[in-house]
Design brief:
Length: about 150
């Protein structure tokens, strides 16, 4: 009789208890904050397949906890604007108080002008409307994280 655990019960150790040295090498680490589970998982999977390391959080409180643990390696905050509890704009403000150079992309199902009218600083952070395609997501992340060659030489 086989006494091993079923595959469904074999869950990898949560990222929050792994050390930074155990994380795989990638093009950059992204903190993804999205309260809709399906959107969070699909977006994370797309980014991982594009070579990024993705730390996932369901809300601002969870994101802050993850960020405190991995702040030295997180290069990008990708957050929904509307989150339960604290919104994405306030989360970005809190994380940028810890790391002022943290790049941020806001995602939202609302039109950009409606989002910026509610407090997102126009021009200082990036915006990606939902629903977004695989191409538009990866293109926006590349645009924010990987500067053009002339920018890299400055």
């Amino acid at each position: 009789m086989n006494h091993t655990r079923p595959v469904a019960e074999m869950v990898p150790e949560p990222l929050s208890v792994m050390s930074c040295t155990e994380l795989p090498q990638a093009r950059g680490t992204i903190l993804l904050v999205e309260d809709e589970a399906l959107v969070r998982e699909l977006t994370g999977d797309i980014l991982e397949s594009a070579g990024y390391r993705v730390l996932r959080a369901r809300n601002a409180a969870e994101a802050l906890c993850v960020f405190r643990q991995y702040q030295k390696i997180v290069r990008l905050l990708l957050t929904d604007v509307v989150l339960p509890g604290q919104n994405g704009r306030d989360l970005a403000k809190d994380l940028r108080a810890i790391r002022p150079n943290l790049r941020t992309i806001f995602i939202s199902g609302f039109p950009e002008n409606a989002v910026t009218r509610h407090g997102l600083p126009e021009g200082s952070m990036f915006y990606l409307p939902k629903p977004f395609s695989l191409e538009s997501l990866t293109q926006k992340v590349r645009q924010v994280l990987e500067p053009e060659p002339e920018e890299a030489q400055v």
